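In the previous lecture we treated proteins in isolation. Real proteins rarely work alone, and many bind small molecules. This record shows how such a complex is specified: first the sequence, then the SMILES for pyridoxal-5'-phosphate.
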Amino acid sequence: MKYYSTNHKAAPATLEEAVKKGLAPDKGLYMPERINRLPEGFIDNIGDMDFHTIATAVATSFFGEDIPAGDIGKIVRDTLCFDTPAVHIHDNIWSLELFHGPTLAFKDVGGRFMARMLSYFIAREDSRRKVTVIVATSGDTGSAVANGFLGVDGIDVIVLYPEGKVSEIQEKQFTTLGQNITALEVAGNFDDCQRLVKSAFMDPDLNRILTLTSANSINVARFLPQAFYYFNAYAQLKREGKAENVVFCVPSGNFGNITAGLMAWKMGLPVKRFIAANNRNDVFLEYLQTGIYRPRASVQTIANAMDVGDPSNFARVMDLYGNSVEAVRKDISGCRYTDDEIRETIAGVQGKYGYLLDPHGACGYQGLKDNLHPDETGIFLETAHPAKFKDTVESILGKEIGIPAKLQEFMKGEKKSIKMSADFGDFKNYLKTRV
Ligand SMILES: *Cc1c(COP(=O)(O)O)cnc(C)c1O
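The predicted 3D structure, ligand included, written as tokens:
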């Protein structure tokens, strides 16, 4: 299957090219030229299928022309070493827990899948030229990508993060790994990290000597696999007899996660509608209200993985809906929550139902609470484990929360990072030493 750029200037790419490049040369995002509908019988029988079977069928629908069935099956099995349970909270509200992976955030699915697909393509090459993945992170992306690529043959990962601006738990998840993972601690903020990464992609010297790629959700191999768990959520609701009028509420930052849900819908997943939950970074809600998209600098909130002022996957949403705000409004509504509202939700749901939300999932829960109709079943994506935001959550509840063993393991490791200035010349010199 070919992948076109949302800017329509670059030539269509093969899957392999789209995965290796990340962003199209015209700075657009790659989209599959077709979204195949799954056979009717698939949805009828989905309640009898396990996660691997469902995910393999979805992956085959996207990648089956380009990767042999056996290899797709293996990539899916290796990726999904954990489940995504749908947990009933109260009444018609459910939580889709996406935090049971190695770094306890939903990005594990896309990160692990992309690592394995890239490694599949590299292994087929004669030259076997090493690929260098560079990724800027404000916290969660770095850990999911680094852990997803850990020990994967032929790939080097360089994580850039702003010195002193990520939590200790987050930092430990990508600075203690060693092997093919290097962490660069940049004397600057997240925007500086992102600027360094973008400059490297555009630098002709570096691109001559290195094969550089991005592992952000612009990459099709990271974003499309996120459709898997929407189907798996539906299968679980179906087994519970709750699969009528399903509404997904997605805590959104760069809008990769919700766009994968829209793809699942176009593949035939029976969904009634979507809600995009925002924190104070509410450009999307404003777009729904005014019809005008006005990107702006992000503001800092306690749901920091959603602190995005110009969501990169907005281009994909526009592409899916032919740039029509009326069409978008029919399928997706929006909501936004302040830090105080997020705090209230976390405390309230813990007190009333004994369920602990993280600050991102709290936006998802509240989006359903405020908008769900009585005849609908609402399911929000619980995108990270609350313990990843230990200090915030503990200050809200006024008591300590347990830390899962997986996170405690990371805390034991010894931090190793390379200090780097925010100057591109320094970063470029460093990359030259990595050939
Ligand atoms: C990345 C992230 C989000 C936002 O997901 P997008 O795909 O960027 O919209 C939400 N919650 C958590 C915990 C995240 O790490």
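Summary for your notes: The mean pLDDT is 94. The longest strand covers residues 155-162.
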